[in-house]
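Q: Hi! Curious about what NCS2 family permease looks like structurally. Here's the sequence.
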Amino acid sequence: MRSMIAKYFHFKELGTNLKTETLAGITTFTAMAYILFVNPNVLGAAGMNKGAVFTATALASALGCFIMGIVANYPIALSSSLGINAFFAYSVCVGMHIPWQTALAGVFAASIIFVILTAFKIRELIINAIPADFKRAISGGIGLFIAFIGFQNGGLIVANKSNLVGLGSLHVGTTWLTVFGLVLTIVLFTMRIPAAIFIGMICTTILGISTKLIPLPTKIVSGMPSLKPTFLVALKNLDKINTLQLAVVVLTFLLVTFFDTAGTLVGLCEQAGLIKNNHIPRIGRTLVADSSDMVIGSLLGTSPMGAFVESSTGISMGGRSGFTVVVTGLLFIIGGFFSPLLSVITDQVTAPALIIVGILMAQSLAKINWKDFAIATPAFLIMIGIPLTYSVSDGIALGFIMYPITMLATKRAKHVNIIMYSLAIVFLFFMWILNEN
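A: Let's find out. The predicted structure is below.
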């Protein structure tokens, strides 16, 4: 059995093994398990049944991971995209007063367009047209982004009225839990201890429980809530997408998901060293996996699915094949039944892992041609824009819009791919739409 798995997932060619891949899959799930609880709370604000959303999130994440792992053989997990779920709930449903049933139909419509663009290899063409320096900037920018999320989740960085953000209070016990986990993980990583991130998370959890900063679960096993309130609701409400406003909503879902997912895929592949000659091998299969999962998610009853940046934790553990996320997918199914146990994996437990991964992903920034100002400027805007706008797609937009301008200014307009010119225009339109909504 082991030899069959190793052969199918090309362990030897990728320089990995069953133990490493399994541990990487567990680490990835541990880092992103919070989505099972966050997504129902966010979409619940739109009036959706939280229990149904929980089950839809678990099943759609599992199926997406299976497709990505078995078909594309990449260690990139899929789940409900953060940020887009907030746009779904607060901007579309609450802000625009659109019923969640209609909004879900909008997600389904956008996902079908997504599949068509993938089938005609338009997404693959766009990703391959992105210059190598910008792919490195995207990877580094995502690294800064997830490190920022880690600092924020761990209480080390908090909102500040005078200058937006500031240092969190050191008089809060949970903040010190984050500090403990971060210092321990850094020490273990520096000493080159195998599974340093995973060990750090386990030790932080144990400390949190022993100091009562993390409460023990009241029970262990819990059945999955019924899917009935959201299952196939998207199909039943397609006929309600009949206004210009709803057409804009569908287009916005499409654009945000397109570039969020593309940016995350590029960043994670760069981190894993899977990009060859500025191309991602089997990129078509990868895109089929994430576009298919977006359809599945909408039918089950959740906001758009996409590549999860927390996959970087598993990659940092040595995960290089699709078996990593097959393990993650299995844990999503199991997690659906053992949801009470997942409550011990708090933000303070995962925060150190995100910060460490941010450090690792930032290494790609060293390969950018910083001496060429025309390249360095848009690359810098991508790198800094992703964490500061709290959006992969918005950060990419800033750099892609600037790129043709700097190249025109240095009389190198012919060096810019026509696709990059087109993307600059698309992003201008994209940002105008978001500003309108």
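A: A fun detail: The chain has one domain: 2-436.
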